[in-house]
Design brief:
globular; binds zinc ion; 180 residues; mainly alpha; Four Helix Bundle (Hemerythrin (Met), subunit A)
Length: 180
Amino acid sequence: MPVREVFRLLEAEGLVELRPHRGVVVTELDEDEALEIFETRVALEILAVRRSFPRLTDEQVKAIETAHETLRNAVPKHSADLHRDFHVSLYAGAGPRLRRLVSEQLDAAQRYHLRFGRLAMEVTQQDRDDHVSLAAAAVKRNTREAVKILRAHLSRGAAEITKSIESHKKKTAKSAVEQG
Ligand SMILES: [Zn+2]
């Protein structure tokens, strides 16, 4: 693959900016932008689950259960994409516009995970319990229960990302000092 093509792909992912006369610049990702992405994500996912659950077909519920099983059996290396797939499966009944918006936010969030390491992508035992409850709520089309679980589930993610950005900043500051 030609180098220009690679840069174009990285640009599409938001990881670099191609600037005329300056070449390739690594995109700055700041904490406030990270929080904006996560707050948007929480709002959209909650809206999506509210719209989706009352409209879920039996096939869509089956797809949620399958996505959940796949995530549960996944090796950690693949769990980030499968985690995303599981969340997207919950919004199958939400409608194409909302699904697209949620997907965009999930991709934006993914860029932070790429930059700040895997810490925030680790699925904890609490996350696993949340996923079990979310899949069970889908079977019962229990929107109220799903909203409650999702709100707590996603806020923990936002707290994790803030923490990992802070520790990343400290590390960067420390190595700048060490390099004098
Ligand atoms: Zn999750």
